[in-house]
C-alpha cells in the first residue's frame, strides 16, 4: 500500500506531539487524523475507517494498551504503539493486547516512518486479482491463500497484519515445520517483531482464531524441537 493511499489515526494526549506527528506524516504522503484520547478516538472510528492507528500508551483515562485490546475485538486495523516505557514486559503486554509493532519514545521520525510502511506492506490488500483460488481447510475455518482471507462459515475472520504474514508463511509450507528462528527472520524482513517470545505471543493469538481448543491445537501445531506447523485438512 502506498503512503498516498493510507489514512492514519494518531492518538496522543500531548498536543505538541500530535501536531508534530501530523505534520511529519503528512509531509511523508499520508492522510492523517488525530485524536486526543481513547474516547475521542472511538468517536472518530465510529464514522471513519483507517489503514493504521498510531497509539500512545500513557494517556489519561483509558490507556493505550486497554484501548488497543478493545479495538482488536472490533477490527483488524493495524496498531503501532508508542510509549516512553521500553521494558520487555511492557512490549509483551502491547503485543498481547493486539498491537502489530511497538516503538519506545524518544524515537527518530525516520524509524517511525519505516515501521509504519513495514506494517502497511504486511497488511492484506483489499483488491484481489481474478486468479484461481487456493483454499486451506482448518475445520470450519477456511483460509484463501490468494486473497489472504480467513473465514469461518461465511463470516470474515479479521487478522492483524502480523497474523496475516504468519498465515502466508505457514500456508506456503503446509504440513512442514517452520522453526521459531525462521519465523523471526521472515517477520524481520517485513519489518515485524524480531524476538522469539514475540512470535510465541502471535502464535497464541492466531490459534484463538483457528482452533476449537487453542490449548490443544489441531491445525497450528507445536512441533517439539522444530517450531510450528500448519496442518490443514486434506482437500
Average per-residue pLDDT, rounded, comes to 86
Overall shape: globular
Rg (C-alpha, Å): 18 Å
Number of helices: 8
Q: How are the strands of the biggest sheet laid out side by side? A: 2-1-3-4-5
Give the biggest beta sheet: 5 strands, parallel
Low-confidence parts: 126-133
| SS class | alpha/beta
Helix content: 25-40%
What is the string of SSEs from the N terminus onward? Answer: EHEHEHEHEHEEEEHHHEE
Give the N-to-C terminal Cα separation. Answer: 33 Å
The share of residues in extended strands comes to 15-25%
Please count the beta strands (DSSP E, at least 2 residues each). 11
What brief labels describe this structure?
alpha/beta; 5-stranded parallel sheet; 8 helices
Short account of what is shown:
With 235 residues, the protein is α/β, with parallel strands linked by helices.
Description:
The protein has a 5-stranded parallel β-sheet, sandwiched between helices. A 4-stranded antiparallel β-sheet has the order 6-7-8-9, covered by helices on one side. It has about 240 residues and is α/β, with parallel strands linked by helices. Strand 4, helix 4 and strand 5 (about 100-105) form a beta-alpha-beta unit. The longest helix is centred in the C-terminal third of the chain and has 15 residues, at about 195-210. The protein contains 8 helices and 11 strands. It is globular, with a radius of gyration of 18 Å.
Amino acid at each position: 500500500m502506498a503512503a498516498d493511499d493510507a489514512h492514519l489515526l494518531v492518538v496522543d494526549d500531548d498536543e505538541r506531539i500530535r501536531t508534530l506527528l501530523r505534520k511529519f506524516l503528512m509531509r511523508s504522503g499520508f492522510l492523517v487524523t488525530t485524536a486526543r484520547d481513547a474516547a475521542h478516538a472511538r468517536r472518530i472510528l465510529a464514522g471513519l475507517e483507517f489503514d493504521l492507528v498510531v497509539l500512545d500508551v500513557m494517556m489519561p483515562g483509558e490507556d493505550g494498551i486497554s484501548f488497543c485490546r478493545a479495538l482488536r475485538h472490533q477490527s483488524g486495523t493495524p496498531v503501532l504503539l508508542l510509549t516512553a516505557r521500553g521494558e520487555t514486559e511492557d512490549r509483551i503486554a502491547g503485543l498481547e493486547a493486539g498491537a502489530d509493532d511497538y516503538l519506545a519514545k524518544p524515537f527518530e521520525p525516520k524509524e517511525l516512518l519505516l515501521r509504519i510502511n513495514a506494517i502497511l506492506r504486511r497488511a492484506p490488500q483489499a483488491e484481489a486479482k481474478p486468479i484461481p483460488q487456493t483454499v486451506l481447510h482448518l475445520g470450519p475455518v477456511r483460509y484463501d491463500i490468494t486473497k489472504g482471507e480467513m473465514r469461518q462459515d461465511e463470516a470474515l475472520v479479521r487478522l492483524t497484519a502480523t497474523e496475516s504474514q504468519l498465515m502466508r508463511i505457514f500456508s506456503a509450507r503446509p504440513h512442514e515445520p517452520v522453526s521459531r528462528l525462521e519465523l523471526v527472520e521472515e517477520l524481520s524482513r517485513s519489518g515485524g517483531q524480531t524476538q522469539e517470545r514475540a512470535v510465541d505471543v502471535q502464535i497464541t493469538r492466531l490459534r484463538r482464531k483457528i482452533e476449537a481448543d487453542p490449548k490443544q491445537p489441531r491445525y497450528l501445531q507445536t512441533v517439539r524441537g522444530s517450531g510450528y506447523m500448519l496442518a490443514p485438512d486434506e482437500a
